[in-house]
């Protein structure tokens, strides 16, 4: 039972944990959480060493290798799912439309989304370009607004490394871990 069930399950769960932490660590680094990333990295490597030790001791058992690989795949999925729920950081939404954007701008401003509009020229004539800098946690509110007023507009969403000022919707009740991360590990002067 130990060889065929418990140890492969341990290897699988250890790999899920370490790859989940690896995914989060990389995201924390890209978001500038320089104190949290090394802490997560410590536990990531510790768990990885425990899992790889069992693999190296028992290289002859293919179930261990399958558990290791399945844990890696599952860990990626779990890490990305957690990251999406945390919704850390800020993004810029760049929206390009050939239609008049006044009603969308008014709807965005009424919900305290800051928006900057620029007139431009596209392949098919004049366009309006809207830049909206928004916290990732507010994206579920923003995208339906865009779809309501300009369902065929072209838009891109890109991560922003740092924001100095801006107009943002009032914060909703913050998930406790996100609140902890922001209080404990935020950069000074931000």
How is the topology of this model organized?
Layout: H1 2-30, H2 36-57, H3 62-86, E1 90-97, H4 102-110, E2 115-122, E3 125-135, H5 139-149, E4 154-160, H6 176-185
Antiparallel strand pairs: 1-3, 1-4, 2-3
Helix pairs in contact: 1-2, 1-3, 4-5
**Rg from Cα:** 22 Å
Oligomer: single chain
Q: Ends: how far apart?
A: 54 Å
| SS-based class | alpha+beta
User: Looking across the biggest beta sheet, what order are the strands in?
Assistant: 2-3-1-4
Count the DSSP helices: 6
Strand fraction: 15-25%
Low-confidence stretches: none
What shape does the CA trace take?
A: elongated
**Number of structural units classed as domains:** 2
Q: What is the helix/strand order?
A: HHHEHEEHEH
Strand count, sense and barrel status of the largest sheet are: 4 strands, antiparallel
Question: What is the residue-averaged pLDDT?
Answer: 83
Kindly state the number of beta strands.
4
Helix content: 55-70%
Explain briefly what this protein structure is:
With 190 residues, this protein is of the alpha+beta class. It is 56% helix and 18% strand.
Give a description of the structure.
The protein has helices spanning 2-30, 36-57, 62-86, 102-110, 139-149, 176-185, and strands spanning 90-97, 115-122, 125-135, 154-160. The longest helix has 29 residues, at 2-30. It folds into two domains: 2-86; 90-164, 2-Layer Sandwich (Alpha-Beta Plaits), CATH 3.30.70. The protein is elongated. It is 56% helix and 18% strand. With 190 residues, the protein is α+β, with helices and mostly antiparallel strands. It starts with a helix and ends in a 5-residue tail after the last helix. A four-stranded antiparallel β-sheet has the order 2-3-1-4, covered by helices on one side.
């Amino acid at each position: 039972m130990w060889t065929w069930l418990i140890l492969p399950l341990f290897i699988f769960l250890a790999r899920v944990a370490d790859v989940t932490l690896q995914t989060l660590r990389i995201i924390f680094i890209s978001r500038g959480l320089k104190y949290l990333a090394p802490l997560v990295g410590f536990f990531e490597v510790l768990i990885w060493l425990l899992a790889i030790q069992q693999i190296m001791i028992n290289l002859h058992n293919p179930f261990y290798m399958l558990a290791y690989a399945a844990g890696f795949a599952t860990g990626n999925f779990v890490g990305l799912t957690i990251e999406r729920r945390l919704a850390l950081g800020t993004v810029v939404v760049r929206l390009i439309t050939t239609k008049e954007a006044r009603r969308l701008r008014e709807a965005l401003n009424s919900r305290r989304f800051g928006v900057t509009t620029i007139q431009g020229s596209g392949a098919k004539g004049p366009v309006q370009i809207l830049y909206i800098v928004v916290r990732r946690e507010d994206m579920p509110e923003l995208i339906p607004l865009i779809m309501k007023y300009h369902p065929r507009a072209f838009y891109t969403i890109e991560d922003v490394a740092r924001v100095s000022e801006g107009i943002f919707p009032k914060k909703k009740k913050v998930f406790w871990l996100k609140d902890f991360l922001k209080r404990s590990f935020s950069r000074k002067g931000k």
